[in-house]
């Protein structure tokens, strides 16, 4: 790969140019991955053009989704040629709305297994509130798209509108996926409202997290109705901080298995430095959120503040998750400071990568303390470049197993072309020191090659990345992090509290003893928690999840999954696909999710299962271990249906399951 790429050299084989439609549209002001919005197995992109004039509405704005394809691209693509087969245009509603000012993938917000997108229109007027702002979630689908979609037609089935609150708030100025911040298996979204006045602090800024759900959405949602159950607001601190100017998912920065978010406040004044800027990392949790969270309450346990360095650096102008840049198994974050003055170059700009860790964070982190072990600084080149104006994860561009980052410098002047702009891709790299062979050194951080390896980590808290090949990795004692990556791998955590990530391939993950977190990744995986209170997440593919002993949480993800809770009171959630859920012993909670699911009852059951989403037309009760239909009795109680089992031969007479919110007769119950 060459050290510099001239965009004029893109020819279809190394990339392609996407041309806007009309003069002054400003297409490309915002760009993002769109995930796989048409569910064809190839990722798509979204482009915002905030000054476009759809349907003769001046500056209503447009956004364009371009579908990915493995059929190849020409050297250039005209956005005017999108016809529904290669992409589509999304039209703003009213004049001066500026829809497309911000665009992003949204993850899978409605839990149908297909990625969605979000679009911000910061100047939209709502209920007489001028420039309160709106955001729009457009659902992905595997049905065909028309060549154009009007945002005014979103009705809850194809997407929904998110309404701002007060005049001049400009909600939707920044939008992003929030990952799954509440750990319920559905992706969430975050909306920045940098001119809001929380707690009476003028333009301190707010950000709103809206939770994903498969319970459906109305045609519109008012941000004022977020109450902790459907989302929450994050309040900025001081006047004119502009918190929410930039927002993003941060990945899992603290390594607890739940996604976090990051919020930029570029005009904040940390340590008395005016306009140095602050950014805030808020940790996700499955313990629930209150209706509001003040960013001033971040104390290291629920998140932390990142302080800019010098006055008027404007750190937090841009923020993003960075992926795992240093390959330690924890997601990192990147913060842009467009007006920083590295090496005496005024406003050349700086960007800062902060490494994730499970060692804990203090309540605040000064960017001046980054030393290579906890993160590093990326310096801009020439005065006035404004590098760090935009920052993002770039995935693994060079395929070396480490995530890369991309940084925009929109005022750079390459090849003598004044303010033509530059972008820089920085490759991820290992920060490992030389690995000692002394027997007293047990905490290892090891990466291996593409071969089929057998890796035994012995004692200590180890991080093992197996890379390609069909590998066998054993963590043994210690709190280990094991990564299978490519190939059909076997990962065995052994003793203590381990984190196992299968990656691609058909993997076998075994938690061992301790409270473990197992993530299957792509393809068809088998996850065994064994003893301890474990969290198993199948993700894509048809997966088998077995909790073992302890109070386990099993999340199937996409595909037709089989979930066995075994001993202990467990939570089993199938999510998408036709799933098989068997709680077995203990008082289990079973949630099938989408699809035609089977909930299993058997004679060795002790305890009562709660089935939260039984759908009479789709779901069934499966009987095992000698139980028959004649053993069942259904009783209505407080809007629920109790399934009682009476079998004299097996000496059983008890309530085996409660179908919440369902009233049915025995004849209506499908039993297999």
TrEMBL record:
Which GO terms of the cellular component aspect does the record hold?
A: integrin complex
* Disordered as annotated region, ranges: 469-498, 529-551
GO MF, any single term: calcium ion binding
UniProt-listed InterPro entries: FG-GAP, Hemolysin-typ_Ca-bd_CS, Hemolysn_Ca-bd, Int_alpha_beta-p, Integrin_alpha, Integrin_alpha_N, Serralysin-like_metalloprot_C
The biased composition feature labelled Acidic residues covers 489-498
TM region(s), chain numbering: none
User: Which keywords label this protein?
Assistant: Glycoprotein, Hydrolase, Repeat, Signal
Q: Which GO terms describe its biological process?
A: cell adhesion
What PANTHER family does this protein map onto? GLYCOSYLPHOSPHATIDYLINOSITOL PHOSPHOLIPASE D, PHOSPHATIDYLINOSITOL-GLYCAN-SPECIFIC PHOSPHOLIPASE D
What this protein is called in its record is FG-GAP repeat protein
